[in-house]
Amino acid sequence: MPKNFPVDEFDSVDAVGGRHRAKASAGTRLLSFTRYASVTVALSVAGILTLDTISGTSHFSDVLSGTTVATQSDFNANGLGVTVIDTTSRAGLASKVAHSLFAAGWNVLSATNSVLLAKITDANPAGTPAPAPTPLTSASAATGSEASVGKTVVYVTTPQAQSAANQLLKTLGTYEVVQSNQYADPITVVLATDYK
User: DSSP H helical segments within the chain, as ranges?
Assistant: First the structure.
C-alpha cells in the first residue's frame, strides 16, 4: 500500500476550525437556570388555568384567593359523614335537607331521592324491594313493639355516630335515631312523609 498521497485542499488547513465557547461563569449558569425555571412555572400555570376552565372547576383560583378546602376538623362531629335519602315523592327534598345540614356545619356526603331503599336480592326475583330495618325506640325496644312505618329515621353505624346524630337532630328536628348496619355511611338520614 502506498504511503505517499497526493496533496489536496485538506493539507493546507492550519488550525482546528469550528466554534469554541469560553467556559460559562456561575452568573451565566444561574441566569440560564432562572430562565428555564420561569418558563416552566409559566407553562404550568397556563396548563392549570386551561384545565380549570375546561373542567369548570376553580381549584387554582381558590388557592389565589386564599380560600381553603374544608378539613374534617372544620365540620361538626369531627367530619363524620352524613348521607341524606329521600323516600317521599317531594322533589328536591333530599337536596334541600342536605344543603341545610351543610350550612349548619355537617359533612354531607350525598343526597339521594330514592323510593326503593333496599337492594333487590336474588331470593326476591319478583322485583319488590326488601324492607328497611324497622327502627326501634328505646321504649319500644324494651317492649318489643315496632315503630310505625313512614317515619323519618336517622340511622347510625357506631356509638360515636349515635352521639353525633343526637347533635344533628338539633338542626334536623326531633326524629328517631337507630343504630344499624343497613347503610355504610356513619350517619344516614332517611326522610319519610312525616318530615317537615
Answer: 26-55, 59-65, 93-103, 138-143, 159-172
